[in-house]
Design a protein that fits this description.
Blueprint: E1 2-7, E2 13-19, H1 21-24, H2 30-44, H3 103-119, E3 123-126, H4 136-145, E4 151-155, H5 160-165, E5 172-176, H6 182-187, E6 190-194, H7 195-205
Parallel strand pairs: 1-3, 3-6, 4-5, 4-6
Antiparallel strand pairs: 1-2
Length: 207
């Protein structure tokens, strides 16, 4: 078991907590993290890029002029891609960019991301992150006390005061433990976990 300090919002040590080695102390495999992160980013793509091909363009289907005798090149429909206002040849069409990543691989990558924060001493466990009021200044002062500029804060339950106080602060993100994901853990320099959320995360990721 790995022992980690637990702090209050004044950055004072109040207790300690044991972290499971099979979740916060696993071997890190970069290719697994890469696979999961790329899968997350691909799933976020809307895939709505589209153009009209010659069958989708609103245009008369009749031949523009007769085949022979005009001295001009022979033509067919006005919706041809070679004509102005015609359809687009080989243009993009709506598609699904999502990649299927097995559940076991996603859970394994989440353990590795958490392990990375522990090994780099960027995991901070807070006893309780609830704020007394909605005030951005107080939240900024709290984060300044931890000397942190870019952090992901994971809470156990909904904390309206914390979520609204941090909403306009750049490089800060607050989420509940149910939404914890590999991309956000790696994206932010520091990871804050509420002590009750640690147990819930361990229960969700236990083999």
């Amino acid at each position: 078991m790995t022992v980690s300090d637990v702090y209050n919002l004044q950055n004072e040590k109040v207790s300690e907590v044991e972290l499971r080695d099979d979740i916060f102390g696993v071997p890190i495999k970069k290719h697994v993290l890469h696979q999961v992160v790329m899968g997350q980013l691909a799933k976020r793509r809307s895939g709505t890029a589209a153009t009209k091909n010659r069958s989708a363009v609103r245009c008369s289907g009749s031949k523009l002029w007769r085949q022979k005798g005009t001295g001009r090149a022979r033509v067919g429909s006005g919706s041809s891609p070679t004509r102005k206002g015609g359809g687009v040849a080989f243009g993009p069409s709506p598609r699904d960019y999502s990649q299927k990543v097995p559940k076991k691989v996603r859970k394994s990558a989440l353990r590795m991301a958490l392990t990375d924060k522990v090994q780099s001493n960027r995991l901070i466990i807070v006893d309780d992150f609830s704020l007394p009021e909605i005030k951005t200044k107080n939240f900024v002062g709290t984060m300044r006390g931890f000397d942190v500029k870019k952090a992901l804060i994971v809470t156990n339950d909904k904390s309206e005061n914390l979520e609204k106080s941090s909403k306009n602060v750049p490089l800060m993100k607050v989420m509940r433990y149910q939404g914890l994901n590999v991309y956000d853990i790696l994206r932010y320099d520091h990871l804050f976990l509420e002590r009750p959320a640690v147990q819930k995360i361990e229960e969700a990721l236990v083999s």
